[in-house]
Structure formats: C-alpha cells, structure tokens
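residues and backbone:
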Amino acid sequence: MNLTQLDRIILKNIQWPNDFSEKRFCLWDISRKYNYSIVTVKNRWEAMVSSGFIVSLKVKPNNELFGLRRGLVALKNKHSMIKEEEEFLKRNKYITNTYSLENEEIGIDFLYPSNLDPLEFINKQLEYKFKFNESSYVAIDNNLRCHITRKDLLILRELINQPLLNAKELSSILGIKRTIVAKSLDKMSEGNAFSVDPILNISCVENLIFAIYHAYVKEGSEQKITRDICFSLKDNYLLTKYFIPGRVLILASFNNNEEVESFKQQMSSFDVKKQSLNTIFKTNPQKYFIYEQLLNELIEKHSRNGLNNESDEFSEEEVIQNKKLGKADDV
C-alpha cells in the first residue's frame, strides 16, 4: 500500500501521548478536528489494517504498575542471524520487539524487573548466547504519576481489549457512570498509566525508507524540540515518543535516499546534545503478542486483586508468577 496524507494524520493522532492534542483521540475526534467525514477516516483506518501495515492498535499499561521497566540495547551482529537464533529471541516474553539497524546491529526492546540490573537480566534471559553493545543501552523511565484503583484497572482492561472506545462506550459496557469513566481516563492519561500505539509492519508499505531519529536533549525541552523536528520532517514524520525524559524518538518515512540525506543536513541545526538517524530494514511486529500475553495476565490478576504504587522490589520469580502486589480500592 501507499500512505496517504490522511493515513499520516491518523497515525500522528491515534497514538498517545502525542504532540498534537492534550487528550486521547479516537477516530471520531480525528474526523472532527481535521474536517474529514467519519466514513472516510474509518475507511482509511480499515485500509491500513487490511493491508497488514497496522498489525493492531495497542493500549499498553505502564510497566511500572507491575514492577517492570523498559530498556533498549543493540546486539553485535557481524553476520546474518541464523533462524534458530531468531526463533530464540521471538520466544522470550520479556523481549517486546526486535529490529535490524543499518550498522549491522540488532535492536532489542525488552522489559526487566525494576530491582534487577537490566543488562544482567537480559543476558540471563538470552542464556548469554549474544554479545551486546553495552554503550548502546538506553533506559526508558515510564514515570507513573498517579494512584491506580481497581476501578481504573477495569476501565484500562476494557480499553486494552477495544482501544478505539470513548468514555461513553466504555460506560455502557462496564456499567460505570460516564463522568467517572472520563475522570479515570483523564487521570490515567495525565499520570502516564498507559500509552496507545499502532503496531506497524513497515514491510507492507511500498517504496518507502523508514528510519528512527534519536536525540539526547535537556529534560523539559522534549516537546519543543519534537515540534521543531517534526516541522522539519513535515509529511515524513509518522510517530513520536517525546515523553521519554531527556530523549526524543521519532519514526519517520522517506520516499528516497535524497530525502534522507536532506534531513541529515538539517540535523546540524537542531538544539540537541547528541543525535542519530538509523534506517530500519525490518521489524518484528508479531513479537508484541508474546509481550501482550504477559501484560494481560498481570492486568487480569490485579483488576481482581488490586495493586499499590509503593516502591516495592520484586524478584524475577515474583514478577513471572504474577504475585499479588497489594491492596487497592473497592470497585
């Protein structure tokens, strides 16, 4: 398929948090904001899904709810990875995604228990079969900023199952007042309790080059710098993750190598500490579903039993076994 301008608008706005609105958007919101009919917006959404470009839309609970954190690291890979090694990576539920970088390294996106050393943990998970470029490690702090009740978890669980629902629809399904649902969604959005992300299979899009722009910036300047860079990218910009403290991460698509080189020349004008642009040759969108099973088990457990937001430390075994984290408010 070929991406249209409306496709890019949908991708920019359907993710949460994003740099375009202060609230989570559903397709109706996009229709009203950009003056497209809801039928047109839904048709483009369905076209991206049916083509396989959007594998799914995922509401991801903040990993810190379950004593987990997230990290990124690159594997040293001087030769093509054999099939057995690829399958080994796919089977591990703590690895949420893998992707190839143009410098012959393989990017690993993974979860680890918050009380353990991340590189030690991932090495153990992978049975010390791979060599890491340890200097490439990036810790992603999710910064959970709100207390989550059992009622919030029930709403979040339904949103995970049906990510495009608005407060009114969630209220009808759960039998909870719409105003309460709306307040819960606002609280969880502002408190970084969840994010909304399209899971993309970039190989389904024809004649495009995909690249990840990564920059270290002064904390507090992420939004402004993201806006400036997205303005430079214009229609090339697809997704951003400016909410990572001190980091700017942007997924961009380019029509040809000339556009890539043109953007690289603009990079020298950006007010950042350090930056890079890495072309992605392939991604593994199916890997997310193993990770999703882990989160579904955890959220199902704690929507029944509750959890707390204290800074408890958990062993690897306790995380894996979904040990009850504590008490929570009654529904």
